[in-house]
Design goal:
4-stranded mixed sheet, 4 strands, 5 helices, 42% helix, alpha+beta
């Protein structure tokens, strides 16, 4: 599963670090929205980033990356898909969160997305992954 995130967003980078520590089964791969590979991926699906300078307004999760059955998930569905890849108790948490209707979950997601850079800030550049993390990044 490929996770596409805003590489300059402090909150997004913190979330990626959180997932890296918990993904003991090595199921998640990460790419910043600034990547050329990401632009090509989005073009395949008729999508583009809303504003490349400000970063995407959502996290993207790509299931079956580079497969004919490739599928993109957005917003709260993307976050839940990522949590499902982690060991327990996270899949159980996802089951509970799925009881909340998607429009309500996405509303909460959009609120955080709108305010994330005002609250947590932006980095001047994307941080480099450590040597042991490099294989997890596109």
């Amino acid at each position: 599963m490929l996770v596409i995130f805003d590489g300059r967003c402090v909150l997004c980078n913190g979330a990626v670090r959180w997932f890296l520590r918990r993904d003991r089964r090595d199921r998640l791969r990460f790419a910043t929205s600034e990547s050329v590979d990401v632009a090509a991926l989005l073009a395949r699906h008729g999508m583009r980033l809303s504003d490349a300078r400000a970063g995407p307004d959502t996290i993207l999760v790509v299931r079956k990356f580079n497969d004919p059955a490739e599928e993109i998930q957005l917003r709260s569905n993307a976050a839940l898909a990522m949590l499902c890849e982690l060991p327990q108790p996270w899949p159980a948490v996802v089951a509970a969160l799925r009881l909340i209707p998607r429009p309500v979950r996405d509303f909460g997601y959009r609120l955080v997305a709108r305010w994330r850079t005002r609250i947590w800030g932006r980095l001047e550049s994307c941080p480099l992954p450590t040597a042991e993390e490099r294989g997890r990044f596109l």
